[in-house]
Amino acid sequence: MRGGGLWQLGQCLSRRLAQSKSAASKSRTFAAAPAAEPAELKKTALYDFHVQHGGKMVPFAGWSMPLQYKDSIMDSTINCRAAGSLFDVSHMCGLSLRGRDCIPFLETLVIADVAGLRPGTGTLTVFTNERGGAIDDSVVTKVKDDHIYLVVNAGCRDKDLAHIGEHMEAFKKKGGAVDWHIHDERSLLALQGPLAAPVLQLLTKVDLSKIYFGDFCMLDINGTHCFLTRTGYTGEDGFEISVPSENALDLAKAILEKSEGKVRLTGLGARDSLRLEAGLCLYGNDMEQHTTPVEAGLTWAIGKRRRAEGGFLGAEVILKQLQEGPAVRLVGFFSTGPPARSHSEILSSSNEKIGEVTSGGFSPCLKKNIAMGYVKSGFHKPGTEVKIVIRGKSYDGVVAKKPFVPTKYYKPS
């Protein structure tokens, strides 16, 4: 869900990279917006570090980002689940809302019950438009009653900030007290996998066993003041660490050193495989401005109070779908033949077109094809047999429960 506009990645990308030095421009790895020319690409604080470690850099949402390193995307995916991965996700946009009215302001734009969060906890949410469609998804954290921290996708940054800024200006003109700060001075690292907590614990005095999935705190890590959220985009236990950019390289080096080589630098290719195995949406593929949170299977993210009160953009459309059910639903699939790709047609057993694949690939951990896509309601139940059309030929598929690989989020027992 937190990819910033990644398109289909996976083993096909590895093959393309091997075939051509310009593979990055030929493969579907970008946001919907046109890729910037190399001279225009932004670089994270770890850019040189990525290159030194064999990172294959590609244009992504206006940034030069590592697609993979010396190991394959398949090996990186498996290593994350077996040991751990360190991702540079500094291209994503962190921001803080402050002021006594920051929560009521944000609740006009998102579906979450932000007011109901305990300080130091967060949740996934969706920014909606007037038609109930998804502008973007975000993890929003209630630091305190007058401080909200959130991270939005890189590929959606410009439209998100314009959207928030426009509504904030109108809100303030009516007397609302809210302001914001965009954390361009900070970098963001994602440490994921079973070794994430043991390795990070070696770099901080705070007891990480008392920080659960969705929790947020400010603490010193490797001698630097950081924002820490126990979350991630892989289905594994892990953390997203916001660190001052001048300290990002030292922190990355310390994490890799403390893991004794078991945690590996990992790129966008494996990040996409991991999120798909975990059944997590990717904005730009599995969610768009014309799809609602209900259709995307994110009903659980709409707070109970918000269902009763509404008050967010598109609430009328979304609440009606909650009552009557949506016309289409996002589901998972297993399939035979070549891996399904975005826009592959989905047919019923009687060859009626019932939907379209939004994400798909070969699962490195399950060793089988997996996919997600929208189908007409009534065809969404697990076990429903379908046909998936790939390059003009139909292959057998079956609706499957998500996540495909069990999640391992760290929660109270």
Annotate the secondary structure layout.
Blueprint: H1 11-19, H2 23-26, H3 47-52, E1 56-60, E2 63-68, H4 73-82, E3 84-88, E4 93-98, H5 102-106, E5 121-128, E6 134-144, E7 147-152, H6 157-173, E8 179-182, E9 186-192, H7 196-201, E10 216-221, E11 224-229, E12 238-244, H8 245-258, E13 263-265, H9 268-277, H10 304-309, H11 315-324, E14 328-335, E15 345-347, E16 353-363, E17 368-376, E18 385-390, E19 393-400
Parallel strand pairs: 3-13
Antiparallel strand pairs: 1-2, 3-9, 4-7, 4-8, 5-6, 6-7, 9-12, 10-11, 11-12, 14-17, 14-19, 15-16, 15-18, 16-17, 18-19
Structural key phrases:
single chain, 413 residues, alpha+beta, Gyrase A, domain 2, Elongation Factor Tu (Ef-tu), domain 3, 6-stranded mixed sheet, 11 helices, 23% helix, disordered N terminus, GcvT/YgfZ_C, transit peptide, Aminomethyltransferase
Give an overview of the whole structure:
- The protein is α+β, with helices and mostly antiparallel strands and about 425 residues long.
- Among the domains are: about 10-90 and about 185-275, Probable tRNA modification gtpase trme, domain 1 (Gyrase A, domain 2, 2-Layer Sandwich), CATH 3.30.1360.120; about 325-400, Aminomethyltransferase beta-barrel domains (Elongation Factor Tu (Ef-tu), domain 3, Beta Barrel).
- It is about 25% helix and about 30% strand.
- It contains eleven helices and 19 strands.
- It has helices at about 10-20, 25, 45-50, 75-80, 100-105, 155-175, 195-200, 245-260, 270-275, 305-310, 315-325, and strands at about 55-60, 65-70, 85-90, 95-100, 120-130, 135-145, 145-150, 180, 185-190, 215-220, 225-230, 240-245, 265, 330-335, 345, 355-365, 370-375, 385-390, 395-400.
- The strands form four sheets. A six-stranded mixed beta sheet has the order 10-11-12-9-3-13. Strands 14-17-16-15-18-19 form a six-stranded antiparallel beta barrel. A five-stranded antiparallel beta sheet has the order 5-6-7-4-8.
